[in-house]
Amino acid sequence: MIANPERLEPETEVPVETNHEVVDDYVYLIGRPLLRQFLSFVKNRSPNGRLADVGPLIDEWRAAASHVSKIEKSEAGCADRPPIQPLPAHLESLREQFLRDPLIEHGFNSVPTQLGMVELDRLVVYQHHIDLSYVAGLKEKLGPTPGAEEIFRLCLPSDHLKPPVKWARMHRDTY
C-alpha cells in the first residue's frame, strides 16, 4: 500500500524488578487512545506503574499521536471502499459450512450476508493494545506457514463449541 512506510522501532526492554511474575505481556498502541487511557493502562497494568514518571510517558504519547496524525493525513481515503474480492473456489465449502452455523444463521438472518476478501493494508483497525500471549497462541495454532484454509478457520470458525441450551418452563405455556 505505502511504498516506504516509516517504521517506529520498539524501544529496548527496560528491566523491571518485581517480586511477582508478569501475568500478561502487552504492546500498547499509543497515539490513538486518549492520553488518560494510556496513562491509566501504564498505572494499572504494568509493574510499579503507580510509581512511573508520567513526564516521559506523556512525551512518548505526544510523539506517537503526532505520527498517527501524519499517517491520517498522508493516507486519507486509503481505507474508503476497498475492493472486495470473491472467495477463491477452494474456500467455498468452508464458506458454506460457516454460513450454516446456527449462530450465523440466526444472527444474520435479517440482512443479506456475503463473505469476501479485502486487502488488510486497506483497512483501519483501532485497538488499544495487543496481548502478546494471545499472539503467541495464534502463531502456535497456525504454524509457520498457514494456508488459506487455516486462516479462514481461525477467522471464521464454524467448528466451535456450541453454547449449552437449557429449557425451563417459566409460566404456563411459556419456556
Would you mind describing this structure in some detail?
By secondary structure, the chain is mainly alpha-helical. The chain folds into 2 domains: 1-80, no CATH class; 85-117 and 128-155, no CATH class. Helix content is 37%, strand content 6%. The protein contains 6 helices and 4 strands; from the N terminus they run E-H-H-E-H-H-E-E-H-H. It has helices spanning 35-45, 54-74, 92-99, 102-107, 132-142, 148-155; strands spanning 26-28, 85-86, 116-117, 129-131. A two-stranded antiparallel sheet has the order 1-4. Strands 2-3 form a two-stranded antiparallel sheet. The chain is extended. The chain starts with 25 loop residues before the first strand and ends in a 20-residue tail after the last helix. The model has no long low-confidence stretch (mean pLDDT 84).
Number of strands: 4
Main sheet: which strands, in order across? Answer: 1-4
* Total of helices: 6
How helix-rich are the residues, as a percent range?
25-40%
Low-confidence segments: none
Give the class from helix and strand content and strand pairing. Answer: mainly alpha
Estimated radius of gyration: 22 Å
